[in-house]
Design brief:
With about 170 residues, this protein is of the alpha/beta class. Helices cover about 55% and strands about 10% of the residues. It has a 5-stranded parallel β-sheet with strand order 2-3-1-4-5, with helices on both faces. The structure holds shikimate-3-phosphate (S3P). Shikimate-3-phosphate (S3P) binds near residues 14, 77 and 119. Belongs to the shikimate kinase family.
Length: about 170
């Protein structure tokens, strides 16, 4: 099985879908944010505060390359597409973009009190939407498959991914 890399903005459902997809395909899952939290030894928001986003992005790139060495379902962080190096690494991979409406994404980000994103602390709803629109083209460009997740249940999204990637 070729690795499947899930990309998309914060709140797109990458974590949820990666788990469900891995279960269905009986594959290993790597949730990059979870691994990074373990590595940096603190919540991502604290890390951003203490060490800055640039330093976080370096850890993220290192992990992305490592994760791609094994066959797995990879749930990336929403900003993984920002680094040129990551864009290159992902250019020939099976990248699936989980697309959702900007208003839904912002709502999910605000309602998630367990995973408080550093970029959601600093930015208001308008800023978050602008951030999404500024990244949207990159998600589309890197994706081999685009799945519109609007009003779909995880099980439907999983079967659509499997259908599209031909696993
Ligand atoms: C980020 C998204 C987060 C996390 C970090 C930065 C981003 O991951 O990696 O807070 O820049 O979009 P999720 O997309 O899983 O929330």
């Amino acid at each position: 099985m070729e690795s499947i890399v899930l990309i998309g903005f914060m709140g797109a459902g990458k974590t949820t879908i990666s788990k469900a997809l891995a279960e269905t395909l009986n594959a290993q899952v790597v949730d990059m944010d979870d691994v990074l939290v373990e590595r940096i030894g603190q919540p991502i928001s604290d890390y951003f505060e203490e060490h800055g986003e640039t330093s976080f992005r370096k850890h993220e790139t290192t992990l992305l390359k490592e994760a791609l060495k094994e066959e797995s379902i990879i749930a990336t962080g929403g900003g993984v597409i920002l680094q040129k190096e990551n864009q290159q690494v992902l250019s020939d991979k099976l990248v699936v973009y989980l697309k959702a409406d900007a208003n839904i994404l912002v709502k999910r980000i605000r309602e998630d009190h367990v995973n408080v994103r550093p970029l959601a602390i600093k930015n208001d709803d308008g800023d978050l939407k602008r951030l999404f629109f500024s990244r949207e083209k990159l998600y589309e460009k890197l994706a081999k498959v685009v799945i519109d997740t609007t009003e779909k249940k995880p099980v439907e999204i999983v079967s659509e991914i499997i259908q599209q990637v031909g696993s």
